[in-house]
Amino acid sequence: MRLILFQCTYISTPRPEDNFTVDGQSIHWECPAGYFCLGPLNTSISRTSDTNSMVKCPPGFFCPENSAQPVYCCAGYYCSLDANSITLCPEGYVCNIGTVYPTSCNNLAFCPEGSSKANKFLVFVLVIIIAIAIIVLFKIKNVRSKMKIAKYFKLLTEQRMRLERTLDPVKTTFDIEFENLGLILPSGIEIMKGVSGKLTHGRTCAIMGPSGAGKTTFVSLLTGKVKRKSGKIKVNGVNESLEKYRKLVGYVPQEDIMLRELTVRDILVHSALMRLPNDMDRAIKKQKVIEVIEFLELSHVMDSIIGNEEQRGISGGQRKRVNIGMELVAEPSVLFLDEPTSGLDSATALEVCNLLKKIAHSQGMTVVAAIHSPSPRAFNTFDDLLLLGKGGRILYFGPRNKALEYFESLGYCCPCEESPADFMMEVAAGKVNPVDRNDIIITNLFEAWERYHESGKEIFNPAHDIQIDISNEETPRQNYVKLFWAEICLPYIQNIAEYLTDVTLEFFLFLRYTLYFYQSDPIRETPNVFIAFLLLFKRSCLQLYRNRTQFLLDQLLHLVCGMLISLAISDMDYIGKAPKEICEIAPFILLPFCLKPNDLIQHVGTFMAVGVTFSGISAGFSTFGYEKIVYWRDTSAGMCTIPYFMAKIVADIPRLVIASLMFSLAFIIFFSFKTTLIQIYIIILFTYIAAWAMGYFISALVTKEKISLAGAGFALGWGMVFSGVTPSLEKVKSDDIFTYINWLWDVSIYVS
């Protein structure tokens, strides 16, 4: 018979008034409080109980007088240890099912009398307070930024009063000679051969040629980014590599590689502070930035963000000038540019080319630009021309205004209606045939240039006839083993060797520029690793400030994720196993469930791990994954890796702490936890740290297009498979299936 006591249902023994009969005989029996009595005489019970059919009720259960079976202490109540009394849960406490000792409510919850779950909607008040505090901090930073903008506008006004839009000449000029430069790939293909010439300071040189002619390769060989296989380089007459002077060499990549969320001034100031000499006063460095901004005619967009596809910023031409300005503020002696007019309209491309001419002539800088199909006016701004053909061989290298004269001497006449640059590109691609002449037979422009260069004459000597096909020489046929080695094995081995070399070099460079192993740089003494760390940390914080809307949306993501996890686990709890006396008479099919407690807390851990791992990995992606190319550009300019890495990690600490707090506050809204909030927060914080590190690791391995997929796999793997729940650790250690991979679970335990 079911009876309700204090809104708590239990099963009573038959009472006389119930008229319960068996074979016409009235059956009823008594049972004292704190015990349950299955029947007046039960043989199964009699073998295990001294009191025959009377069994002591275990703690966590409720057995009022005349109980036939034990029941769990009802939700909203707590029961005495002897299980014979039940009490309504007092105000300020929570009593889940099976409670013996009421659990105190935390400060963020409201618990009226008889509460089985805490009302934690005060958490939203705390979240709102935190959001307001963050917004106030951003507002304070905004006010300070406006004050800083006013200072820079004052400097800009002073610069305009000087009526100058020129930069001071460089302190050190470089004339670069190169002879017989060559490069052979691991596959045996020769992509550059016999390139010789001289780059003079105060002049601009355009490098032209069809696709695959080796324009970028030539620049990489000169700057030391690629190890040359043959030839030599002289700097101001001394046989040495430009890599030694990399702090005095500027390189402007084809793509506008910069942090798009920062402003023009932010980017140029950071570049100046990182790359200008240590002994230069900070105020002079900032003045240098103002001079470059005015020189590049960027003053009206000085405090505009660069922008990207999603957020509108400055125009493409202005972005290209900022790209050049990042190198100009470092006061280089040599400036290399890769396709500076790529993606620009003809008018903007002309502006960029005029700017390069102005830089070279006013500063005495050596300016070299790999350029593709410039307009006639843009082409005329260059002083010299290096024309490369297929296979990286020279077709012409000399004054730009002498190029047509040279090709005309070979029988290649440019039509009046055609652009000289386009005509020479067609000649380089082998699409133009020479005009028939009796005094000259030229079928190989490479050999023609070599003979012309060796003769040292101003015009081609027609007495020398050369008859060699212009087509590329075919490489010898290789067998499959050699091809497999050259195409697959050797590149991987070289990449690994280069990686280990770079890591070792970076480590020793770090030691060299630290306090204990300090050595000055004879070329230019730039900020040491500690100052570099502070500058990079400041830039990382500035990124966070510029992306403040995204930062708030990220915190909302963590909050919603925690709330969904909390809702999913709201009814999960631990309920102790039933008394063995009940299990002894339970049906066999229910026996396994009877003998084990109803433990759903382990699933709470799994849900929490998966939720935190998903959120943490997705947040950790953005730290390094979306600015790899910016890192590569900075390191090529001399930036150390370790200060950059440490600065990004330290700048991520506020994001990590606030994200874990948002998740923790949302996590407890629907879930009735029995520990303190600080303990839950610490667990979630350390899980976030591990997940954030996974995000760093994944973003370094895969491209940004594949980051989300890789992150989902990591989250499921670490949150579920390696959590010890599915499969269980017991099964992993005992099952033969996991014999050879069970060490993965050991690693997971130690790492976590």
Q: Could you name the CATH class of the largest domain?
A: Alpha Beta
Major β-sheet, in short?
6 strands, mixed
Query: What count of domains describes the coordinates?
Result: 3
Number of strands: 24
Proportion in helices: 40-55%
Mean pLDDT: 79
- Strand order in space, largest sheet: 18-19-20-15-21-22
Terminal-residue CA separation: 51 Å
CATH architectural type of the largest domain? 3-Layer(aba) Sandwich
CATH-assigned homologous superfamily of the largest domain: P-loop containing nucleotide triphosphate hydrolases
Shape: elongated
Are there runs of 5+ residues with pLDDT below 50, and where?
A: 42-52, 438-443, 457-478
Strand content: 5-15%
Number of helices: 23
**Which structural class do the helices and strands define?**
alpha+beta
Please give a structural write-up.
- Helix 14 (548-568) packs antiparallel against helix 17, helix 17 packs antiparallel against helix 19 and helix 17 (601-624) packs antiparallel against helix 21 (707-719).
- 45% of the residues lie in helices and 13% in strands.
- Strand 21 and strand 22 (393-399) form a beta hairpin.
- Residues 42-52, 438-443 and 457-478 have low confidence and may be disordered.
- It has 752 residues and is an alpha+beta fold.
- The chain has 3 domains: 2-104, no CATH class; 176-455, P-loop containing nucleotide triphosphate hydrolases (Rossmann fold, 3-Layer(aba) Sandwich); 529-719, no CATH class.
- It has 23 helices and 24 strands.
- The strands form 9 sheets. It has a 6-stranded mixed sheet, with helices on both faces.
